[in-house]
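Design a sequence for this backbone.
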């Protein structure tokens, strides 16, 4: 997740982070997306290149310690409105941080 203040740092560092331990089981090769909650847009597509750890202590002034390094899979960063993916990534109004393969494949298909 990101907002206006953190989006550029995510992109420039090729690093995603959260304060909570939602994603500690991310492993290299996992497909990742970046949700910009101010705009309600989902950006993609990246692949994790590390396990979740505190890789860069200076990133986001140390606020987000659960970090994963990523590399872009697509030539350009593509965005879709949350409304197009909501049925795949939300359950009872709560974001799902790790998708099963069927929903993940459907989400990737939205970026084709």
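Sequence:
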């Amino acid at each position: 997740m990101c907002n206006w203040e953190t989006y550029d740092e995510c992109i420039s560092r090729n690093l995603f982070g959260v304060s909570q331990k939602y994603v500690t089981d991310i492993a290299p090769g996992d497909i990742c997306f970046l949700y910009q909650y101010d705009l309600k847009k989902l950006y993609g597509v990246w692949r994790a290149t590390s396990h979740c750890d505190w890789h860069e202590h200076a990133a986001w002034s140390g606020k987000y310690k659960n970090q994963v390094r990523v590399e872009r899979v697509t030539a350009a960063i593509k965005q879709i409105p949350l409304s197009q993916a909501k049925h795949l990534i939300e359950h009872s109004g709560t974001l799902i941080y790790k998708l099963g393969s069927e929903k993940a494949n459907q989400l990737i298909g939205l970026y084709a």
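Residues 45 and 74 are 6 Å apart (CA to CA).
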